[in-house]
Every structure is written in structure tokens, then in C-alpha cells.
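Need C-alpha cells for this chain, all 238 residues.
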Amino acid sequence: MKLTLPALFSFHALIDLSYPLDSTFPIFPGQGPPAQISRHVSNEDGYSSNRWELPEHWGTHLDAPLHYSKGGKTVADIPISELFCPAIVIDIADRAAADPDTAVSLEDILSWERKFGEIPRKGFVLMHSGWGKWVQTPLFYNKKEDGLLHFPGFSAEAVQFLVNSRNVAGVGVDTLSIDCGKSLDYPVHKILFAAGKWALECLCNLHSLPPQGAWLLVGAIPLRKATGFPARVFALVP
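Here are the C-alpha cells for all 238 residues:
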């Protein structure tokens, strides 16, 4: 499928939003071991190849609608035109530092629009919570005495607005989930994926992006039947 670039599109920086991935990287509870690797080497000619067994929802990864919507799109079904889209960054890092259970609210979105204009159709809304500073530490999960995880995400009200009133491509976060960590019923996943949208989780370097103007480029393997998969995600900054 041919993808037409925006008129006069140019950029001065290419920012990697993906974490390097190995078996020590955090994973949302309940998915089993992060990875198993077996190396196959032919000593005769030096040929080397690995076989990987890995969860779909691990590391910097894409969530397809099928993840929480029966009959929804798989990773392979997401059009390439949706994987290159305007990036909108909503910064809640100061608030998250004081309250790990905070969420991107409808008021956060409306406040952003008062400053920068209406979120464009098929834009992709990113939450910058600053949570990446805790990656590879227990605070990335932030499990408390109540047995729940405590990290920021989106509110259901905010995502309902983005889906119904702004027709975004999806939303992304720098945490383990687009729902807040303490959520037990994952309303953001259900609302977003029922609408045929997609998501990105465990992004990094969102602090390097402007509130608007950058474009998101997602290198997703078109894997049939996949509910999600690790991805290489870039931002092109003009």
C-alpha cells in the first residue's frame, strides 16, 4: 500500500521510542517468563541462528484490537497508513511524581487543545508520565500492600472522548498499560479496542518530543492472528 507523506514534510531528528529488549525487561504480570532463547550453531560453516519464544505483550509493543475485542483487528490487519501518524504528547509527569494513580483526564486533553488546537483526526495521543525513570526497578510495577500495581494511565472518560469526538488512531504510554496500574477491569483497553483503535505500551524518550508536530512511525510485524507484538517505534521531529 502506498503511503503519501504530508506536504513539504521534513524532520531534523529521529528519536527512538523503543527499549532494548532482553529477558530482564519488565512484563505485565500473568504472562509467564519473558523469553526463552535456544541457539542453533553449525560449527561447520559458522552459521548462527536463534529460536525465540516470547509473549506478544512485552517490551515496547503494539496492542491490536483483538487483544480485548472479540473479532477485532490483528496486528496484520492494521493498515500501514495508521502506523504513520501525528504524535500528540500530553505531559502529566509532575502530577505522576506525586500521585502514581493519576490518569490522563478529559480536562488534560481539553487543556492541551486550548494551547495547541484540536487534536487531528487519526492522531496518536501519547501520555508522558516520566515513569521510564523506574524501568528495571520494582517501582516500574509499584506493587503495594493492597496487592495492586500503582502507575499512571489514561482515564476511560478521556479515551471515550478521543475515540468518539476526535477519531484518533490510538493512544500510547510510557508504563506497562494504557489503563492505570490498579485497574482490575481494564476499561480503557475495552473502549479503545471495541472502536477498532490500537495502542502502544512501554514507550521511552517521550520527554524528547514536542507537544505537537512530531510524527510517529511504528515498525510492526504484520503477524497474522497476533493480538499484539513487540515493535520498533520512532518519532520524526520537524
